[in-house]
C-alpha cells in the first residue's frame, strides 16, 4: 500500500482538490483506496465525499478523525500523535492499495505523523510568489514563514532516517496553471526548479486551472464521473489526463501491491 500525504502549510493551494481527484481516479481504476481528512476546520474532503455517497458515486473509503484535538506541535510534546499509525496498519492488513491523506495548513501532531508515515508527499502550489515563499523560504530568510513547512519536512526526513525507514519521495505539484503564459509564472517556475535542488523535492507535475473542477465539485463530482449525457468536454478529458499523469507518477514509487493492482 502506498501512503500519499498531500500537504503544505498554506491554505488554498489545492490540497483537497488534488486529494479528491486522485482518490476518485484511483477508485475508477479499480484500486482499493482509503482516504483520511485531517483538516478538522474545513472538512472539505469529508463534505465532498458525503456528497458523492449521497449520489451513490464510487468513492474511496473515508475516515474523518473527529476526535483529534489537533495540538500544535511543540518541543515539549511528542512530535506525532500516534493515532494514525494503527489506521495505516489496519488499511495495509486489509489489502488497500492506496491511502490518501489530506491535511490542514498547521503544524499539528497528527499532520506531522501523516508525513512520517508517507511513502509519497505531494505539495500543491500555485504559480505565485506567495505560495513559493510560504512553502519554501528557508529558515532565517526574510520571507520565511513562522510555521515552516520546509523545516518540518527536513525533520521528518531526519526522523525516518534515524528509524531506518526508506527515503520517501517528495513531489511539488504546480496547480491552477493558467492557459495564458505570464512573466511571473515563468519566474516562479525557474525559482521552483532551483528550490527543488536545494530542498530536495522531485518532479514538478502540472494541473491546469479548470473551472470544470470547481463546477463539478458543487455536486461532489469530478471529471472522472461520466456526465448524464455521456459526453465529456475537451476540458474534462484534458483534466482527466493531467490527473492520470500524477497517478502514474505515484505508481512509480516502490510498492508491489500497488503495481499489481494498477
Ligand atoms: N486545478 C484547479 N482548477 C480549478 N480550481 C481549482 C483547482 N485547484 C484548486 N481549485 C480551487 O481553488 C480553491 C482552493 O482549493 P482547495 O483544494 O480547497 O485548497 P486547499 O485544500 O489547499 O485549501 C477551491 O475553490 C478549489 O476549487
Ligand atoms: Mg483543503
Q: How would you portray this structure in words?
A:
The chain has 262 residues and is an alpha/beta fold. The protein has helices at residues 15-28, 44-54, 85-93, 109-116, 129-136, 149-162, 183-199, 211-217, 234-251, 256-261; strands at 2-6, 33-37, 61-64, 98-102, 120-126, 169-177, 204-208. It has a seven-stranded parallel sheet with strand order 3-2-4-1-5-6-7, with helices on both faces. Helix 1 (15-28) packs parallel to helix 2 and helix 1 packs across helix 9. Bound molecules: adenosine-5'-diphosphate and magnesium ion. Adenosine-5'-diphosphate is lined by residues 11-17, 44, 175-176, 207, 209-210, 213-214, 217.
Bound small molecules, by name, code or SMILES, are:
adenosine-5'-diphosphate, magnesium ion
Number of domains: 1
**Low-confidence spans: pLDDT under 50, at least 5 residues?**
255-262
Total E-strand runs: 7
Mean pLDDT: 90
**Architecture (CATH level 2) name:** 3-Layer(aba) Sandwich
The arrangement of helices and strands along the chain is EHEHEHEHEHHEHEHHH
Provide the gyration radius in Å: 18 Å
Strand order within the widest beta sheet: 3-2-4-1-5-6-7
Tally of DSSP helical segments: 10
In short, what is this structure?
The protein is an alpha/beta fold and 262 residues long.
Helices and strands in order:
Layout lengths: L1 E5 L8 H14 L4 E5 L6 H11 L6 E4 L20 H9 L4 E5 L6 H8 L3 E7 L2 H8 L12 H14 L6 E9 L5 H17 L4 E5 L2 H7 L16 H18 L4 H6 L1
Magnesium ion (MG) binds next to helix 1.
Amino acid at each position: 500500500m502506498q501512503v500519499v500525504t498531500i500537504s503544505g502549510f498554506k491554505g488554498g493551494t489545492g490540497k483537497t482538490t488534488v486529494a479528491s481527484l486522485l482518490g476518485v481516479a484511483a477508485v475508477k481504476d479499480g484500486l482499493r483506496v482509503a482516504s483520511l481528512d485531517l483538516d478538522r476546520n474545513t472538512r472539505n474532503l469529508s463534505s465532498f465525499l458525503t456528497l458523492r455517497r449521497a449520489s451513490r458515486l464510487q468513492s474511496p473509503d473515508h475516515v474523518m478523525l473527529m476526535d483529534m484535538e489537533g495540538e500544535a506541535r511543540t518541543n515539549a510534546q511528542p512530535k506525532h500523535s500516534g493515532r494514525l499509525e494503527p489506521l495505516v496498519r489496519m488499511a495495509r492488513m486489509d489489502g488497500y492499495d492506496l491511502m490518501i491523506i489530506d491535511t490542514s495548513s498547521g503544524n499539528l501532531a497528527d499532520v506531522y505523523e501523516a508525513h512520517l508515515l508517507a511513502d509519497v508527499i505531494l505539495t500543491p502550489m500555485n504559480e505565485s510568489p506567495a505560495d513559493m515563499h510560504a512553502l519554501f523560504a528557508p529558515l532565517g530568510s526574510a520571507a520565511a514563514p513562522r510555521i515552516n513547512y520546509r523545516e518540518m519536512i527536513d525533520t521528518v526526513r531526519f526522523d525516518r532516517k534515524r528509524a531506518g525507514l526508506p527515503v520517501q519521495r517528495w513531489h511539488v505539484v504546480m496547480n491552477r496553471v493558467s492557459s495564458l503564459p505570464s512573466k511571473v509564472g515563468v519566474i516562479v517556475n525557474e525559482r521552483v526548479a532551483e528550490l527543488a535542488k536545494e530542498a530536495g523535492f522531485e518532479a514538478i507535475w502540472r494541473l491546469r486551472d479548470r473551472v470544470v473542477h470547481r463546477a463539478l465539485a458543487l455536486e461532489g463530482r469530478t471529471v472522472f464521473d461520466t456526465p448524464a449525457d455521456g459526453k465529456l468536454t475537451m476540458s474534462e478529458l484534458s483534466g482527466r489526463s493531467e490527473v492520470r499523469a500524477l497517478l502514474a507518477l505515484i505508481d512509480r514509487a516502490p510498492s508491489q501491491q500497488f503495481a499489481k493492482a494498477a
